[in-house]
Write a structure and sequence with these properties.
single chain, Immunoglobulin-like, alpha+beta, 30% strand, disordered N terminus, five-stranded antiparallel beta sheet, 13% helix
């Protein structure tokens, strides 16, 4: 019974060991082949009105002829199953098999599309169809996103040209698929000189009918083209004072937005001075890609001290897109303003100069330190991935170059040297503990004084342990000589016993001609056993001990690691180098596993024998 349990144990141990080795192998080799996948297809949703959505697939690279994907709703909303209007077609305008499956809760749709021709796409977009959604509330927020199946895929399609099936994860949706069934209508004041700091400014005696009051606001609605605007409040323009009007806008679902506007009735101002525009710069210099607000810092004040609206016009609009400068060139910005009495401010003009984006960027901290009379800047941004490339100019004075390099004294500087094709390149790293900058400085070998100076900055980063020294070099002094021969008392006999009676004959003495060769190197198999160790009486004296420089033992301490220079037991032959990767790891794993199994077997067998 005991032996049976032992066998079972060893079998289990062997199985576990082999399984572990296989797991490691497959984890490193990638295991089984994975299916073709891509994750860049998007789900495009266009809200046509409050309850109608257009569904498309965007960023489709291949030409699919079969397609499957799913979408789902999240929120107090559901699909109208009878409203789907298919838009998908194929390039041959032939029949396309289409099917949609609606979930029981009417919140998920599965689309199945099959064609014998590639599906029609425009700019990487395939239009699928339009469908209505239903909300139990007048206004609600919801999301429409990709639905992922149990197998982890969000979509599948078949490529027309190759019949390759492609699967992918969830379709990406802009803004997370956030939608609103019905957005609130919006109200805002119009652009008028009569509106100052959000107030409607009137003069005693001005007409201000209901229609004129409504003309001061603009109403918009994302879903409804026709909304109703009303105004409440009384304004008596015959009496100086402050009044209030309340504007309301209502959409077709009775969603209402209000806007409260102060109204000021004032005396007529005689001989009002013209407003003045302030903050205008004569010239503004920008680079392609910069952001720019044409009205930032620009103000105008009227006769009574109110801030009035400043308008900007000019050809700058050809380069400024959504606040970003897009094209290089020279442009004009003209600023104008007018007060509520019709008095204009004097026009002011700004010249906008837009330069091409440079090939290099100098960090602000280095700008005052780099002397462009000494070096020319080529490219880079002083990062490790893109170092700032500098070339020492032909006319550079060594004294100025030295002054520039010494200006980096706030940083710890490391300089490394490379030479190739008549040029010397210096990799310069600057760090102060917080920031690190990377420079690459190039000089011609003919610039002798420059090269000599920069060479003096090169720091030897080799550690003392790494540097080859004269002590480590095999020399004639390190060769075993007749003076270094073990004494007759210490010579091992032919039986290898450390006795004085078994001295080797003179024929066995090592001579200078009998230097150990690579064939004579001791191997792990040739190591003396514990029985062959010389006794303490036979130990060589301290005078005869080999120094650390002459260490020829098999022990690979940091001081006596075998190397090709010392002609020790080690070798640099590629055939003898340890393998890397799976080729080396797998045999090691298997050998280790077998060793464990063998050891456990011997141990258990030994225990059984003892019992």
């Amino acid at each position: 019974m005991k032996k049976l349990n032992t066998k079972k144990f060893m079998f289990s141990l062997s199985a576990i060991t082999v399984t572990a080795a296989g797991a490691i192998f497959f984890s490193q080799s990638g295991g089984a082949a994975t299916p073709v996948t891509e994750d860049n297809i998007g789900l495009a949703i266009d809200k046509l009105d409050k309850d109608t959505l257009k569904i498309s697939l965007s960023n489709v690279v291949e030409m699919p002829k079969a397609l499957q994907f799913s979408v789902k709703l999240d929120g107090d909303i559901s699909f109208n199953e009878d409203s789907l209007n298919w838009l998908v077609t194929n390039t041959a305008n032939s029949e396309v098999q289409k099917q949609v499956k609606l979930s029981d809760d009417k919140k998920a749709l599965d689309f199945y599309i099959v064609s014998n021709q590639p599906l029609t796409k425009s700019g990487g977009t395939i239009e699928i169809g339009e469908i209505n959604v239903i909300s139990s509330k007048e206004a609600t927020k919801y999301t429409l996103t990709s639905d992922v199946h149990e197998d982890g895929t969000g979509y599948k399609y078949v490529v027309n040209a190759t019949n390759k099936q492609v699967t992918g994860p969830a379709l990406t949706v802009d803004n997370g698929g956030a939608l609103t069934y019905n957005t609130l209508p919006q109200l805002e004041l119009i652009d008028s000189s009569k509106i100052v700091e959000g107030k409607i400014m009137l003069t005693v005696g001005d007409s201000f009918t209901n229609e004129e009051q409504l003309a001061y606001v603009i109403a918009t609605d994302e879903e409804d083209d026709n909304v109703t605007v009303t105004v409440e409040g009384n304004v008596d323009t015959s009496i100086i004072g402050s009044y209030t009007l309340t504007y309301k806008v209502t959409d077709s679902l009775n969603e209402t937005t209000t806007l409260t506007v102060p109204v000021i009735v004032e005396n007529k101002v005689e001989n009002a001075s013209n407003p003045v525009i302030e903050g205008v710069k004569q010239q503004v210099e920008l680079t392609v890609g910069d952001s720019f607000d044409v009205l930032e810092g620009i103000t105008a004040v009227d006769h009574t001290g109110y801030n009035i609206t400043v308008k900007a016009t000019g050809d700058y609009t050809t380069t400024l897109v959504d606040g970003i400068v897009t094209k290089a060139g020279i442009y004009t910005i003209q600023y104008d303003a007018q007060d509520r009495w019709g008095n204009p401010a004097a026009s002011q003009t700004t010249t906008l100069i837009v330069a091409e984006k440079p090939s290099y960027i100098i960090p602000d901290a280095l700008k005052p330190l780099i002397d462009e009379t000494v070096v020319s800047i080529i490219e880079g941004d002083a990062t490790q991935a893109n170092p700032l490339a500098l070339t020492v100019v032909d006319s550079a004075e060594v004294a100025k170059l030295q002054a520039m390099m010494e200006s980096f004294n706030a940083y710890e500087m490391v300089v490394e040297r490379q030479e190739q094709d008549g040029k010397v390149t210096y990799d310069v790293t600057l760090t102060n503990g917080t920031d690190t900058y990377y420079l690459v400085m190039t000089a011609l070998t003919t610039q002798t004084d420059v090269v000599n100076y920069l060479d003096s900055l090169v720091k030897d980063t080799t550690t003392p342990e790494d540097k080859p020294s004269t002590d480590d070099k095999p020399s004639t002094d390190d060769k075993p000589s007749t003076d270094d021969k073990p004494s007759t008392d210490d010579k091992p006999s032919t039986d290898d016993k450390p006795s004085t009676d078994d001295k080797p004959s003179t024929d066995d003495k090592p001579s200078t001609d009998d230097k150990p060769s690579t064939d004579d190197k001791p191997s792990t198999d040739d190591k003396p056993s514990t029985d062959d160790k010389p006794s303490t009486d036979d130990k060589p004296s301290t005078d005869d001990k080999p120094s650390t420089d002459d260490n020829q033992s098999g022990t690979t301490t940091p001081e006596n690691k075998p190397s090709t220079d010392n002609n020790g037991t080690g070798t640099t032959d590629s055939d003898n180098q340890p393998e890397t990767g799976l080729e080396a790891q797998l045999p090691l794993i298997i050998s280790g596993a077998l060793a464990v199994v063998a050891g456990m077997w011997l141990l258990l067998k030994r225990k059984v024998v003892k019992k």
